[in-house]
């Protein structure tokens, strides 16, 4: 017969209390302390003699008391730890911007206003902005187009957490009046956008996609919300996200891929990617800790920009992993991402990880001057779309160079996100409110955070030292190139780029026939297709990982590559 200890009182059976109401250890479990050294040894592989174990018990008393005291404390989510991450290694210097130019002029095919609402809705944000500035399009008209499309498609996609139609129409009317008086608020004047619902909006519910936070209404706007408003952008809706920034399952259901609504849109910026891909807004804001922009952008066929760590302040955004969280953009064109980043970037005096590095204009590039690193085996093992992107880069004249990748076991870094997230949301684990979350699979947050109680502080510090080694080796890889072209998760670059803080641009490069995919599966090769599987055309993407704080060059190269590929405007048939 086995006895199950209440999880709210004891952490993983070791007797380390997590709840405020936990009883003193000696009063309830007098036999636990002597067993702790023997219990912990298998977790580390270390063994101790009987005298050493006896000596350890005196210190374990203090550790238990400290663990209990810390578990009883309640910290605001936005309070960061004292240890702060900086992607810049000693001696780092910015790359020169090169010859700069204003963003490219309007494409000939888009220079005049389309005749249908759908064509307008799917136009890139930079072109919409030009039509708004010149009076060819009214902000109220554009806002109503998107609201009509949201009414028609959002319920099916489950991509909108909170819709703000009245406020959006009022703001659109104000933008039109301002423009009629000759006042242009900024580069995003009159553009309706979607905002991932983990970024605070004053007086508007911001529930982080999670049942325990339903009804959470912030008193103040996040820094980026204020910046977007001042630049003329119109908040249309709060977009859905996987609960507490993981996956695409949230309290409203599962956000769907507009190209195949039978599958999820991936996450966690699930609603932002789906809304942009479905033509429900001009652009959207997302966040990434470990793939939360790149993954849904790839699944839905949107352009995703993950900026350099520290480029955009996170004040007012839910903290998941302080040393990895980044705010970025989901859009339909690389230039859309450039426009948004120009508004979002720069320290705000509140986020201690925000870095004061200048952001130049998108440069005018010659492909032969851009050194792009790659590994041939990534593309041999990749999809047809991956190989087509590599061929397009070569034909466009980019200077392609084979690179050597860091020799670091990335599995050793796997605990960083979980441990920081477990600390950020310890209250849910200790109180049992993690049971309120819909997603309770083995890989979901509740089980990950409970299991994190087994991890040692020594492990976390050693993982951060391994991370530093990775940063040094990856800096050597990047020293000979301007960026790396790769299938989204090839070579461990999704994890490497995030752990080292480098920017990435993910963009669609082709369409492939696929069955309905489950979970985070990105590609099912022909040999693995189930017999009789129903196939649907879905977008596939490629990623460019760039140098630190070199987003303008990354965007310029991405746009030139997109032109070389010649992929037409993507419009899912909803």
From TrEMBL:
PROSITE patterns on file: TAT
Signal recorded as keyword: yes
Signal peptide (residue range): 1-22
InterPro entries to which the protein is assigned, alphabetical: Amidase, Amidase_dom, AS_sf, TAT_signal
Stretches assigned to the Amidase domain: 142-499
Region annotation (Disordered) ranges: 86-105
UniProt keyword annotations, A-Z: Signal
Pfam families assigned to the protein according to its UniProt record, in alphabetical order: Amidase
Name under which the protein is recorded: Amidase
